Amino acid sequence: MPKIADIQETPNPNAVKFILKEPVSHGTSHSFKTADSAEGDVLARSLFELPDVVSVFYMDKMITVEKTDEVEWDELLPAIAVPIRAAASVAPANGNGSGAAASVGGAIAAAASDDPKIAQIDALLDEKIRPYLASDGGWLEILELEDHTLKIRYQGACGSCPSSLSGTLMAIENMIREEIDPDITVVAV
Questions:
Q1: Are strands 30-32 and 53-59 parallel, antiparallel or unpaired?
Q2: Model's pTM, two decimal places?
Q3: Distance CA 102, CA 140 (A)
């Protein structure tokens, strides 16, 4: 059962990030925008059973929960802590108790594609973008690169944060254009 090490605000006023002492996944992100999508996931389903929870994102030792505008965090945080503390932590990645998590990244398209440009973009995102998004309770994954359009999906606190869809998206596009291909356009879906 993971213990909560810290609770942090995010740039999204409706999302809070829980830092755990034990991991609930190793190097894989889990994002749920609806209770129906969480049906097969015990942790996410238990959080959606609470009123006013609208999205759940977790990976490694982080869980981000987003709420509706109608409820205050002071009312909801104690209730959210209960299913988080009851969640199963995962065994170390190497199985011997001293494990480091598997490398993080592995977006859908990067994992499934042999396109060297997607691999370059994924490595750039791992190095320069994802750590900052994770520190704010979010993440992003590459969905596809078609022609010169890169489609990405924000997750966690970033999924509904206005700055993700404006400033952050422009910064990502500028960085990719500067370091990989000047013709790429980045869109969030």
A1: antiparallel
A2: 0.70
A3: 17
pLDDT, tens digit, for every residue of 102-158? 333 444 545 566 788 999 999 999 888 888 888 888 888 899 999 999 999 888 877
Q: How far apart are the first and last CA of the chain?
A: 34
pLDDT in tens, 26-71: 878 899 999 999 999 999 999 999 999 999 999 899 999 999 999 9
Among 65, 29, 32, 37, residue whose Cα is nearest residue 139: 29
For residue 79, give Cα distances in angstroms to 42, 49, 58, 180: 16, 10, 17, 45
Phi-psi region at 36: left, alpha or beta (left = phi > 0; alpha = psi -120 to 50): alpha
**In the chain, which ranges are continuous DSSP H helix?**
42-48, 73-86, 108-112, 116-128, 130-135, 162-163, 169-179
